Structure formats: C-alpha cells, structure tokens
Amino acid sequence: MKPFDYVRPATVTEAVAAGAHPGAVYLAAGTNLLDLMKGNISRPDRLVDVTHLEGLDGIERLADGSLRIGALVSNADLAHDAGFARSYPAVAEALLSGASAQLRNAATVGGNLLQRTRCAYFYDTASRCNKRDAGSGCDARDGENRGHAVLGWSENCIATHPSDFCVPLVALDAIVEIEGSNGRREIALEALHRLPGDAPERESALEPGDLIVAVRLPPVASGFAAHARYLKVRERTSYAFAMVSAAAALRIESGKIAEARLALGGVAAKPWRARAAEDVLKGVAPTADAFQEAAWRALTDAKPSGDNAFKIELARRIVVRALTLATAVTPARLPALPASPFASTSGAIHA
Amino acid sequence: MNHSISLTVNGARRDFVLDDPRVTLLDLLRERLHLTGTKKGCDRGQCGACTILVDGRRINSCLALAISHGGADIVTIEGVARGDQLHPVQAAFIAHDGFQCGFCTPGQIMSAIGMMSEAQAGNDPERIRECMSGNLCRCGAYAGIVDAVLDAQGQMDETNQRRSA
Q: pLDDT by residue (tens digit) across A148-181?
C-alpha cells in the first residue's frame, strides 16, 4: 500500500476543503477503499477520514413524508431499522443480500453508493483497464467477461456497478445530497453514476471535494411498501455480487397496477432504471403476460459485451419473477436468504 | 507524522503511537499486542478469519484502519473466556467438532458471538448459515459450526429464560 497522509476534519466544511486537494479521497468505513489500496488499485496521497463528522449518522422522517438517511448510517443499521424495513422493504432486502454481516456492520450508505466495480481486470494491475488507467485499453473486452455489462457499455469499458442497495433506491427515485466547494446541492441518484462512454475513469457526477452527506427517499417511495421485492441471482447462495438483480415495486389499486417501478442491477455501469417497462405496466392487471411484455421492454437495448448473452435472457426472467413476487404481498419478515430466487417464499412462481 | 490513539482491548486500556497510518486493527492486535488469536487469512475482507467485536459489533479487522478507531472498545478471541471457563460458543465448537485445522475458528467464534447479539437468526439453521456466510472454512466444517451455534444459542436462550423467570 502506498503511504498516505491522514487527516481528520472536524466539520463538513473542513472535510470538503481537505477533500478537494488533488490526490485526496474520503475514508468512510474503508471496506472497499482499503481493499483497493492494498491491491495498489487506488493510490491516494491523502485520506480524509469523515467517520467522525457529526450529524451524518441519523435516519430521519421529514415533515413532508420524505426519509433522510445520513451518509454514515451503516448498511446493517439501516436494514434492521424496523420502520425503514416496513416502509421500504425492497431496499432492506437488497441491503441484506449484499456482502457479509461483518461488512454490513461497517459499510456506510455513502460508501455503498461510491463502491467501485468488481471487474477482475480492474482489480488486476497487470491487466489493461481504462477505468484504472485511462487510455490503457480494456482486457475485459476479449477476456473472461461472462459477468460483464449487457446495457450501456462501450468499447472502452464493460464493467458493471456492483451495488445491490442502489437498485431499489434508483427505482424509488432516491435523491443524493452533496456538500461541495460551492455549498449544498442535490441530484437524483439515477444521475450520480455515469455510463462509460469514452471516459470510463469518470464514474460519477461528483467533482473534487464533493461529499455525499445524505440519501433521501421522496414521500411517494413508501407508497410501494405492500408490493416491493428485490431479487438477485448470484453464483453462490450468499456473500456474492449480483450476476443479475431486479428491484420491483408496484402500487396496486382495484386489481390494476396504478404505478410500477423497476430497476436492474449487475447489467450496467450504473443501477439501471427500466422506465419503458414501467410504462407498459401502468394501468394494466398484474398478469404473467404483462410481466413478459415488461421484461422485453426492459431489455430491448441489451446486447452482449462478450460471453454473456445469457444475462439478457436471465434478466428477462428475473424481471418477470421479481414482478410476480412483488404482486404477492410483501412478506412480513424477510426470507432467511434475502433476495434469493431459491428462497422458500410463498407466492413464488417460476418464470 | 505520529498519531496517538487509545483503545480498550479485552477490558484493558491500551495506548499506541502510530508512526504510519496504514496500520489496520488486525496488524495492531497481532504485531503490537501479540494477540495472535485473530487470524490474517485473506487480508482483503473476504474470509472472516480476522473477525473481532468493535463496540460490540463484529467487523473484519483487516479492513479497519486503527487510526480511525481511536476510543473503540475491542474484544478478540482472547477476551471471551472467563479464566478457565470457556465462552458457551467456544465450548459448543469443541462439543460439535466445529473445526478441523482451526485457523478460521477464532473468526467463526467471534462472528457467532456477534451474530447472537444481533438477534436476527435465532435458532433457524438456514438463517444461521446466511448470517455466518462471511466466515469461510476451507476444511469444510460447516455442519459442525452450524450445530455448535445452534447449541450455544439454545443454551443462551435457556439462561435468559431462567434469568427472566
């Protein structure tokens, strides 16, 4: 690991000033950053430790019905907050399907949003990677790429964003609050992560010094609580990143879908909102035919980036299955294996 | 630049001067305090052999910078027995053959102790397996580990019932 300077700012303003220096990165729990630094993939000159900043670790219901989650709330504390899990069950399920209990105890909300891809070529410093070393090339393109992107990729980068948490969040129109050199601003989570295009090294809309201080769920987000699930296919039952995942949330009124939300994980460099699929579900009965149509719409633009054409069909099936599970009432208690298609859950119908 | 931190480790206050901010809690415990029960397996947060309790919560000590954890209350495998009396989870691992080579065992035991205080798994073997998935065992002693955790959970439930009766 390259040596670095360590600074611990006392306030958010001090943090932003310290974080704006070239070579500086923020340290929250470090569960991803330390791993990257040990592998010489990230080589910061300065760590700005934000873990001791006041006021960033609360979960707060606002007067308008929004929920504000501080950037330093741990993944475990958020998922196990009973009120949170009741109002946003798909988000809780996604959180608990990610990483291990030890990592969830440490990892933070803000850090989860900004975790880096798990592309093996990004991690292997002997490989060419445009994300790690801009302009060097992409060894994933002709390499082992069965887990790589099928949506939104470019010839320069076919990596995926690994977060589970972000998938239902983007479906529910989450907002990211950012403190930067020019003060406070907010953007839709959907606009935080960038597709690779010709600059895969630029992964987010954040500028130097920008610090995520909170994530907000708008008032309508809790309106999907009765019919909301997260479903995740991985290569082992637990403690693995998504091959393909989907968050499905429905508002069902008088037997018809008043509003649908759908997002996919593991398929692109960002959590992938499937608005065309949502549109086709609006106002129709929640039937298998409607879900099949939605699945086709969600993957219309998908194309393999290598040996991963199977992910397109897999994603269609996961969409149908997630919508089917969401139509059945959200279980009062999360299944023993959160988000697993192999969980013994009532309401599961094979797609 | 040197940084000073204080930790409580297994009940005792310890003061450190860190001449390099790269030191993890794992390396501090092993190299400075010679508490080598906490194991360095992968050193990348994938195997769980380095699991300790920090302020009562189980975490991977290999991914935690010591400098960021000043003031923390740390419990390692060396701190769970009372003299010669093993912690119920330790005793259950012996009773149920919850190990073969033993390398992952301190992490498994610390993880199980942390899991019980999280109270998410109860006595459901499927939930226990899920909640313990952050601890790998290359010998494949998983069946014994689940039995040991179930047994220890049962004993602790009984103890709690007796206390509340």
A: 999 999 999 999 999 999 999 999 999 999 999 9
Q: Which of B57, B67, B118 to mutate to test the interface with A (most CBs of A within 10 A)?
A: B57
Please judge whether A101 and B124 are an interchain contact, meaning their C-beta atoms are less than 8 angstroms apart: no
CA triplet A331, A250, A153: central angle to 5 degrees? 105
Concatenated DSSP letters for A299-310?
Answer: TTT---SSS-TH
Q: Is B63–A30 a contact, with Cβ atoms under 8 angstroms apart?
A: yes
Paired sense of beta strands A5-7 and A46-49, if any = parallel
- The tens digit of pLDDT for each residue in A199-220 reads 999 999 999 999 999 999 999 9
User: Which ipTM did the prediction report?
Assistant: 0.97
Residues A210/A231, Cβ–Cβ less than 8 Å: no
| pTM for the predicted model, two decimal places | 0.97
Q: Which fold has domain B88-159?
A: DNA polymerase; domain 1 (1.10.150)
Give how many domains chain A has, as a whole number: 2
d(CA A334, CA A53) in angstroms, rounded, equals: 32
Note whether B134 contacts A336, CB cutoff 8 Å.
no
According to CATH, the topology of domain B3-79 is Ubiquitin-like (UB roll) (3.10.20)
Q: Is B54 helix (H, G, I), strand (E, B) or coil?
A: strand
The two tokens of residue A112 are 């989860």
**B131 to chain A: which residues are within 8 Å by CB?**
101
